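PROTEIN DATA CARD
Card holder: MYND-type domain-containing protein
Chain length: 248
Origin: Psilocybe cf. subviscida
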Amino acid sequence: MATAYYPTPAAANYNMAPTHAPSQRARGYRICDQCGTVETPAVKFRLCGGCMTTQYCSQDCQKVHWPSHRTICQHTAMQVKAAAAGGAQYGGAPDENIAKNLRKFTSAHSALLGWAGFQALKLKRVPAALRQSALVIDLNYQHHSEAHRRFTINGTHVVPRTYVRDPLVTADIQRREERCRANGGIGTLVVIIQCGPTSQVMPVEVDPPSKIGWDERSDWESALRHFVDSGRTDFKPICTGTNGIYYA
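Structure generated from the sequence above:
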């Protein structure tokens, strides 16, 4: 199969020096799990310290949401403890550290991982694919002082969405999906980041493709590898609008 040629790279800053400056993220990456506020440079979100996945725009929203979040949050914490108790090793790091670092990695690269899932499932052309499929990103562990640089890409593959078997995680995905559709979105994209036996599920609430300016790219995996393997967290996807090319 011939490799597609693109006159521009998949990211605005692909060939630039990394800035690591937080960029404004489009809806679908960082949404307050309580009130639905979208993260902007002026509204810096906070992650739940337990699961390191759910995000909030304020401490008040986090407190209000806790009764409904408690079950999945405590479930995640128990999984981390179980991994530590097992004493298994992968890549020279205890499973407990892998789990914690995996959550930090997912948070740091959330924009890139969500974009990769969007491209892998070809949601620009086939929005319904998110209901049947999920993207799995396999990682290798490496020792590094920065959490987001402790992994490199081993491979990616699209799997049936039933790959996620944990009933509590599945219920949480369904809850997000219902909220997304109620707000005019098409549903929840599921990205599974795993390193050995340890995995992190990243649900991404997705707007209708007509509202997403991202170009469809078949070279998405090379961009994913480029930013992850180099430890860059400043990914900015290329978009095409009525006024030409721009970057999100």
